[in-house]
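Comment thread on ticket #2218

A.B. wrote:
> Attaching the input chain for the structure job we discussed in standup.
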Amino acid sequence: MSNIAISYARFSSSAQSEGSSLIRQVEKAEAYAAANGLVIDRALSFRDLGVSAWDKTNVNKGALSLFLQAIQAGKVPSGATLIIESFDRLSRATPREALNIFMTIVEAGLNLVTLTDPPKKFSTASIDQNMFQLFEALMEMNRANAESNLKSDRLCDSWERRRQLAVTEKKPMTGMVPMWINVDGPPRNRTYSLNTERVEVIKRIVKLAMDGAGNHSIVNLLNQDTPPWSRSQKEDDKRTENGTEHHWQPSYIQKVLINPALYGGIKVKGVDEVIPGFYPPVISYDEFVFLQSKRATRAKGKASTRKGKTVTNLFSGLLTCGYCNSAMHIGSYTSTKTKIQTKYFGCYGARTGSTECRMHGWSIDEFEKDMLFWLTNIDFAKVIGAKDASDMDAARSALATLAAKVSSLNSKITNIQESIAEGAKGMVKLLNQAIDDLEAAEKLHAEQERKVHAMVSRGSSVASVPQGWLVLFRALRDTTDEVQLRVLREKISTEIHQVVERIEMFPMGRDAKETAEQRYANIHFVGGESRVIEAPEC
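C.D. wrote:
> Ran it. Output below, let me know if you need it in another format.
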């Protein structure tokens, strides 16, 4: 018989790492080994800390999994003794599944010791001599599984009560909240309040996003002058121990900007809609919807790129060739004399030979300068705001119609379900169709709701667009800092994509003759209006 002992310790909650669970298990194993002439092999001993035995994570992914593989590979000496505090450390799965783990260990020639009072030792020899040992082990496995099931049921019931109170009474569920919100009071009587200092940072992030800045640009700005947040001193200590620096991350900015907590809402598991008024708000619901609309427009227009230091093309996705309707792509050439590179917009159809168009380029710098000048002189109240009142009435009417349809379909589904419960036949197909119709109607309703809120937010600012853009374009001319320049160009690009649907470019005049004529562009706005704007003669 081998005198090698192997210790296995496990606990399921990371919070237990702060307590005495691990120390207790290790000390009890060492005491048993010393009392029975065994030597603990620390190279073979293993631990699963913060790993569940109920969902079999320790068996499927944890250290116990590696140990079982080592047994099957013959790397654990026969006759060695595995010491555990109790069967629930090994497994809290069903007795059948736990028995499989138990038999894998003992049938490999190992002894298994549980540190009960008194300790119990299991082996193939002891089980063959006393079959009651097997029943005893099964009873312990059943107890461990039953305890876990009971805890799970109680926890589920507890969370269900918390969710119901959150929905009906807006009562706090947990201390885990967005990082700009304070949790006040004892666990059973929590209240939420805004962290004044962090809310200022959130407002800055929202303002930058509203202005068109992308996540990476926002991060670059914050990392210049704003220390990143952490949830606890323990987090900071761990980073210090690992020698890693803490920075703002684009992924966190993304989470912040789509979080309904910005307007006080929360998405509760098992509840389809967001519950408003749960947290103290930072911005209004209308502002939140408008923010999502602005960011969707920016994403659609591909206003930015993660790779470049700045935004090369302010009009990405908007430019078409007026001669053949192909997209206008960026090209470049380098002068053999000056070695200076010039970038231009050129017809993709001409470049690839997919159309009969000639390659007529328009310098990016010149087009940008001319276009920005033109846009500051456009009366946006006419091109996109003249029909705001009638459009708003129509949009709200469409929203009300969709809301009525959603309500009607919900009632229809309820009636069908009641009919099925009463024994009606042939209703399943009708139920499935009604559910599909409801999903489609809810999607249209959500889109129309976003449209209405965007119209409300945009309508109040239409008149100030030219003046606001003039300030932006002057800042663009005077800005040299790379980070600020990127943010500024992202903002301008997003503003352009908000009001411009398409721009047709005519780099060689109306007929694209060999001799250069007065070039012009036809701007199509989101409201359906268009304007032809001519550039100075080439």
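A.B. wrote:
> Thanks. Noting for the ticket: The longest helix spans residues 132-169.
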